[in-house]
Design a protein that fits this description.
Strand order of the largest sheet: 14-24-23-15-16-22-17-21
Strand content: 15-25%
Number of helices: 17
Structural class: alpha+beta
Length: 568
Amino acid sequence: MIICGIKLTHDASIALFDNEVLKFSIEIEKINNNPRYSEIGNVSIIEKILQSEGYEIDQVDHFVIDGWHGEGPFWEGPSFVDIIDGNNQFKLQLAGYNEQGIKDDVLKRYEFKNGLVINGKTYDYSSYMHVSGHLMSAYLTSELAEKYQNSYLLVWDGGQYPRLYYYDFNFNEMHNLGELFVFLGVVYSVIAQYFGPYKKSSEELREDQIKKEIEGFFGGYSVAGKIMAYIALGNVRSELFEIMDRVYEETFEISNEFEHKFSRRLREVIDANEFSDEDVLATFHVYLEKKLVSGLKDKIGKYNFKSKNICISGGCALNIKWNSAIRNTGLFDQVYVPPFPNDSGSAIGTACCEIIHQKGPVPIQWSVYCGPKIINTNIILPDWDQKECSPQELAELLYHSNEPVVMLNDRAELGPRALGNRSILANPSGNHMKDILNAVKKREKYRPVAPMCLEELAAEIFDPGCEDPFMLFDHKVRENWLERIQAIQHIDGTARLQTINKDNNALIYAVIQRFYELSGIPVLCNTSANYNGSGFFPNVESAMKWGQLNYIWSNGTLYFKKEKRQLQ
């Protein structure tokens, strides 16, 4: 059975399962240097992607499309998305964003006949609520599904309150345990419009209110990640917690306006001379963290299901500090976050819902490296040259040249994090390397660069240093390593660690192993390989045209600027 999952709106993607094996998930932003968060502009691309992966569109047994919000005051009501097929425009009806009541069936299947038009041909399709995809992408990609274990599931997405569920695998039942508290996930971006480097003037805020454009109104998709880095500049001021509680009670309402009303009122009552914006944002981060932890404790205590596992999904699950705070509670035996907890995993998730409908909760097979293949254009720009280069030789180049290298290998990773196949690698010694990487990426100086480390040595260097292949938890650099790997440390001494072993990425493991032999350091710097504001580089030609670095490694070949020939 072949199931094709589709996410049409921002973070659009096409995912295909062939008999419970994920063959690919192609995010639109990761092809043709498309902008981050790209939508599907024309559905004809669905057939093109299928054909590029060796499938014909008529081989698909089931098309399933991720749900989306309606146009009501709280996003309720029928959901329709405008689609374009060739020169023709259609309205496509979808399932909604999330359930409207706690007793609603969150795994409900919505079926539509002959509504999906691709290259002039019509197809039946099904749709599941947007939240359903988050739930099932997290659960079915976890080891818990492989072991037939039950699990709590926490979803906190931009348009949803943090809500806890419990999935009973044996009976295929999803129990809705309700909200932990009432803040949409976008609150983290909204408050940044009132405090910090991304705050807007009153006039800009009024204009966003009038336009009601989702990205502008809620602060922009990329702001949350930038603020997570920015808060390291501030201090947590405990006296602000009481003020935030009071403002929460004063402004509380169930509406899409609440997050703005809370932030605006907080700006009014806080004395800017006493509390810096950095301190306010740092404190608000911990304020939300405390709400998450206390909300989970209350729910677990109230329901006390037998399983003590949890899967976390939704865009807020990209927050490594909140994930770690949940793991550190001791409430759970296992805490799992998929590498695509945001909408980049929605095509996979909605396809998982259809798998469960067709076959029950069966385990799936998947790899994080199921994104687009590197495109071989065979174009070498005039000022570039090339030579064969083994992983070990690449490590030697990183060590001896002390220059970063663009790594473009095989298939891209799924989700927003570069995990070695679309990365920029560099020597982690010395803080200057972080400055170099932030400069070429045109990022703020306070933005961190992540470490990738040999898994078997991670605990010697990081605390806790446990297995973390997807870079989704917070780790502290141990004191005796602080001076040796300055480039991968954030301002607060933490790091967004990715652990590497021979199974999850044999190539990167070989590179780090050789670098370790040369330097005594089993760690490399890792940041994403892309144009600013675009998805990962789709080919070597793109990295050459970018031209910010002197070396590119791809599928066994080193490309280098001719001025560097003497070093080869």
